[in-house]
C-alpha cells in the first residue's frame, strides 16, 4: 500500500509491486549465455569424438523467457553457427545426417522460441499498461497525503494487504474546509473488491459532506447514511461496518476535535512524550442505528509541533512470531522520549519500519494505514525555512532514495527494452 507523502499526486513511493528477486532475474537472464559458454568449453576440453553442440538446442527456449524476439533470433542464429563450427573441427562431421538434423531442430526450436517471446512481450506489455491504468484509478480513489494542508503538516503510508493491489479496506483523507481541516481514517470490515467499494462510498461522501456539515457528529451521521445508500454490500450484509476517526482542526489549530466511531485511539507525541488521546467511542459507521445515543465530540488542546498519530488495526495488530501485537504507544514513547517534537515524516517512517521489523517472519498481512499530523509552529518557532523547525535531512534522503527506487520499479522497461509507459505508447 501506497506509501504516500506530500509533493504531488504523481509521487507514490513504496508501492509494493511484485517482481522476481534480483538474483532470480539475473540468473534467468544469464542462463542462455552460460549454456553457450558451457557447451563451448566442454567441447574444447573433453576432445570427445562426438561434439557437444547438442547442448545449444536449449538456448533459444531459455532465451525466450527473458528476451525479446529479435534477441532470441540472434541467439538462435549464433547457436547454429556454433554448431557448424564445432562439427567442422572433426573431419567428416559437418555434413553428417545427425548433424544436419541438429541444425534443423535448432532452427525450428528457434522459430518457436521467437514466436513465444513475441507473444510474451505482447502479453506483458498489455498487463503493464492495464496495471498503469488501474493504478491511476486506485490513486484517484485514495489520494496521496499532502505535505501541508491548512495549519497542518502531514505524512503517512498506506499498504494494501492483498498482493498487487494499491487500495484495500483501509481509508483516509484530509481536506481543508470552511470549518477547518478535517481528517478521516477508517477500516472497512472485510476484504477484496467489496471492501474497496465501501471505501469509495465513504470517501466520496466525506469529500462532499465535510464542506457542508458544520458539526462533526452530523458529518459522521452523513457518512453512515452514505454506507447504507451507496455501498453495494449494505443490502445483503447486515454486519457491514466501518470503524473510523473523524478529526477537525480549526483554522488556528489550537485544538483538535475528535469523533470516535469504534476505531483505535490516536497517539499524541508532544513535550510530555507519547500518550493516548482520550476519545468517547461510539458504534462504528453502519451500526449507529443500534443505539439512540448521539456521538460525543472530544476536544484536546494542541501546542505547536505536537504530532497526532492515526493508524488502522493493520498497524496495531501486527503480530510478531510469538503472537504479540505491535505496541504502538510504547514504541513511539521509546523512540521519541524526552519531549521531542519530530517531523510527521520521521514518525511515519519510524512506525512503518519498526512495525515491519516487529512482524518479520510472522504469517498474515492486513491492510494498514497511518497518518502523522503536526501543528505548524508559529514564526517564533520556525526553522530556517520558516515552516516549523526544519526537516530531518536523514529522513528526506531516505525518502528520496525510496522514491527513486519506487519509480524505477513502477515504470521499469517492458520486455526487450520496450518503454511501455502509457504516455509513450505508440
TrEMBL record:
- Membrane-spanning intervals of the chain: 27-46, 100-117
- Composition-biased stretches (Acidic residues): 395-406
Q: What SMART domains has UniProt attached to this entry?
A: PP2C_SIG
Q: Which organism is it from?
A: Kitasatospora indigofera
**What does the record give under GO molecular function?**
phosphatase activity
Q: Which Pfam families match?
A: SpoIIE
Keyword Metal-binding listed? The answer is no
PANTHER family tied to this protein: STAGE II SPORULATION PROTEIN E, STAGE II SPORULATION PROTEIN E-RELATED
Q: Does the keyword Membrane apply?
A: yes
Region Disordered: start and end of each range? 376-426
Q: Which UniProt keywords apply?
A: Hydrolase, Membrane, Transmembrane, Transmembrane helix
Protein's name according to its UniProt entry: Membrane protein
Composition bias, kind Basic and acidic residues: at what positions? 407-426
Q: Which residues form a coiled coil?
A: none
Q: Domain PPM-type phosphatase spans what residues?
A: 152-375
